[in-house]
């Protein structure tokens, strides 16, 4: 079995949030016999997802919820090793990967997982997701027999199994062929049926998503390890509760109304740490970027993008977003700082801290800016985005730019960011990726609409390299493109804070919170 590591990334992300007694002893191991099960788990999250169809959506909240329902062929263990999940095994041979499927795996509708379901799901994913279209251009899944699937690629791809293992935005989730039949490729799936430990129950708009334990779940036999191995729903009901106001999330967690919370505000760290019934953790996971609308308007002009880069002091924006240096890291290159064992470039390091308002004014004039209103779009549902936007607005005003802050709730923001007539600039946090060609700023169909003929040859070199060690050699070229073309401006890296009540046996974060193998003794 092939074993590829990105342990520097995953090892830091994997932090167990163990339930603690008053004497700080770790809570029960949920994999051991006799662990408390049943009851419910209520998790407060800052936003409502636009959909749970992971093939067509990049939002963090969508993927974090959906991976309890859907599963993938491959996944990552706690050390970053690629392990089979719905696959029993797999083997690579140049331009092909053959997957042997586990037998007896049931979908939530009672159907057994077969090769036809994988073929229908994966070929749809290749055609509708940016990850699929870019990494697997010209590739195709086909059925060998009922439990064997073959992926044939146009060229050898060093990053193929990494991308197939990813459970974040646009993850390659497996759905029943019967659900996908008769749908247009880009038509969103609204019948959420997977093979995961939890099954979809209902979705009450502006309130919550309710999932229940899947009694016929077919778990793997290996012990749980990261996202790999045995998964088990130890609570009967899982509620993902939409709580946009951060102070309400904190109050609900402290009172016990919520058992866990995502995206806890840094301003409340001391309050959360002081409560004996709450355990607070943080994970380095987010890239804070300023995105330009490059499809139309002022920032289709690269000189205007250069002007913003001169006007903005990145560390000030980063500090506004994440407040405490304990929870952010200044970082000039496009991957997370904790991935530097695999991906690192010196390019841009010396320029990171520079700010020049007079140069910015000169460049704005050169770009043809005449004082028109610049729309900076943001959302209060994520404190770090909103606070960063306030600082950027002030910095641009000092450079003579007329900036209007437009604030929306997250669902509206998520919709409007796909409309090139709706904004000029925006600030978003993106989750770190396992390899640089998957970074979303590079996509022509993502916010900002990056479209440069110079980018494709660079990403091709990385993807088609015979190994990740060879791919590393081309990272400087990608960094140089980012600095010159400026599809976005990276401010730095930030942590995501999450918290849970001590009644929980464990709560882990690997590219998002994990809710299986978690019991609740309250």
UniProtKB/TrEMBL annotation:
Keywords for this protein: Signal
Signal sequence annotation: 1-21
Domain of life: Bacteria
PROSITE patterns: PROKAR_LIPOPROTEIN
Limits of the Solute-binding protein family domain: 82-419
Entry-linked SUPFAM superfamilies: Periplasmic binding protein-like II (SSF53850)
Iron-sulfur recorded as keyword: no
Region (Disordered) residue spans: 23-42
Compositionally biased region (Basic and acidic residues): 23-32
Pfam family, one: SBP_bac_5
InterPro entries: Peptide/Ni-bd (IPR030678), SBP_5 (IPR039424), SBP_5_dom (IPR000914)
Protein name: ABC transporter substrate-binding protein
Organism: Sporosarcina highlanderae
